[in-house]
Amino acid sequence: MPKQPRIIGLDNFGLTPRSLSALGSRSVRLSIQLVGQTALRLRLLRTKQRDATLRKTLAKQRDHLRRAFRGIEFVLRGKKPGGWTLDAIVPANRVGALARSRHVKFVMVETIQGRRQKFRPSGFAWYCVWGVVAIQIEGKVKGLLSLEDRLVLLKANDPDDARRRLALEWTRYAEPHMNPDGYLVRWQLVSIQDVYALFDDTIDPRGTEVYSRLRSVRMRPEYRWRPAAETRSRRASR
Fold first, then answer.
1. How many angstroms separate the CA atoms of 178 and 50, rounded?
2. Ramachandran angles phi, psi of 233, nearest 5°
3. What pTM, to 2 d.p., does this model score?
4. What is the per-residue pLDDT across 212-235, written as a single tens digit (0 to 9) for each?
5. Helix, strand or coil for residue 134?
6. Nearest in space to 61 (alpha carbons), one of 88, 34, 41
7. What are 160-192's pLDDT values in tens digits?
8. How far apart are CA 170 and CA 186, in angstroms?
9. Distance between CA 36 and CA 39 in Å, rounded?
10. Measuring CA to CA, which residue among 34, 21, 23, 105 is closest to residue 63?
11. How far apart are the first and last CA of the chain?
12. Nearest-5° Cα angle at 186, 183 to 191
């Protein structure tokens, strides 16, 4: 069965993947998230091998896209050579094929030539969601742990809608990555502390982090991350 295109942001323009493709050669500005390597595969490697393996995989995935979609310039976001995110301007009728590539996790639509984001009802307002994030290092169960207070702005219909709309963002934020010592690290949402309604209507509606504070706390059971134990538990439950 062919992979379904994972295209985020079409709702903002009142489009579906099919109606986007019908726009033909109109330019669509995208951010593209590569698949990279799964944490499960990386766990099978020694810690010192993981970073090099991940960088090599991402480089191959970037090269594949450049060969498969000739004429499209894929620009690596950020200064790090091993980044996961690419920026590109793509014809509307090729976005679906790009999103279906086995090397692409999802694409996010930022702008579409000749299209404006659709009108939002009056109830659609700004909300600030305050989440507490634990910076987890695989296998670490003792000592101090860093927490981040992350406040993210977005537009939603009500506080519950704001929580739902950020679910994918929290998942992306927790994507494991390598630290300099070769260990897997993830920034995992622990709790939502508050959802605050704003009255200012001049902030970027795609979501903006306005405040972040790191602090150290004593290790608790809910902060521990043991990938091997999680894998064993999943296998036992099958």
1. 7
2. -65, -40
3. 0.59
4. 667 888 999 889 888 776 666 666
5. strand
6. 34
7. 999 999 998 999 999 998 888 899 999 999 999
8. 11
9. 9
10. 34
11. 24
12. 150
